[in-house]
Amino acid sequence: MSGLKAGDSFPKGITFSYVPATPESDDSITSCGMPVDYDASKEFADKKVVLVAVPGAFTPACSVQHLPGYIEKYGVLKDKGVDIVAVISMNDAFVMDAWRKANNVKRDGIWRKIFLSDPGIAFSKQIGWTKGPERTGRYAMIIDHGKIVYAEKEPGGDVTVSGADSVLAKL
């Protein structure tokens, strides 16, 4: 498969990995729970989701240019009906959870921000959106009840079509 486009269904059988937040571990970057599978195909089927992929947690462009827009636009995304913002990367679930905490991102109630691992970059490989052989590409998607309504991979190294403002313009 070469990318996803508006009108496509989100693929079946897509599983990511993440560390669920607990009151005991949510405030400390040095402690967390154990990773569990996250059935994205099931979880995204009845929600409006913004899926953001970054090449690596804690990397300069991802931490300074890409992620902050989504954190800052939290309220606007929620007001536009987004249920979940899912950030994926090639990093393991422990690193993704530490990156969430380092950015002071909390999970709250029904509206959720989830930091997910794309193990072995399986999903990114499946859709053909990788950055080299071992990193997730930089891209964003809007998935509305299992249907892709926006999907763009960055054409270069900058954050343009996958940034929060570009995604908001498509909601």
Number of strands: 9
Major sheet: 5 strands, mixed
Structural class: alpha/beta
Terminal-residue CA separation? 25 Å
β-strand amount: 25-35%
Q: Mean pLDDT across all residues, rounded? A: 91
Write up this protein.
This protein is an alpha/beta fold. It is built from six helices and nine strands. The protein has helices at about 40-45, 60-70, 75-80, 95-100, 120-125, 165-170; strands at about 15-20, 35-40, 50-55, 85-90, 110-115, 130, 135, 140-145, 145-155.
Descriptive tags:
171 residues; alpha/beta; five-stranded mixed β-sheet; two-stranded antiparallel ribbon; 9 strands; globular
Structural topology:
Layout: E1 15-18, E2 36-39, H1 40-43, E3 48-53, H2 60-72, H3 74-79, E4 84-89, H4 93-102, E5 112-117, H5 122-127, E6 130-131, E7 135-136, E8 139-144, E9 147-153, H6 164-170
Parallel strand pairs: 3-4, 4-5
Antiparallel strand pairs: 1-2, 3-8, 6-7, 8-9
Structure, briefly:
Helices cover 27% and strands 25% of the residues.
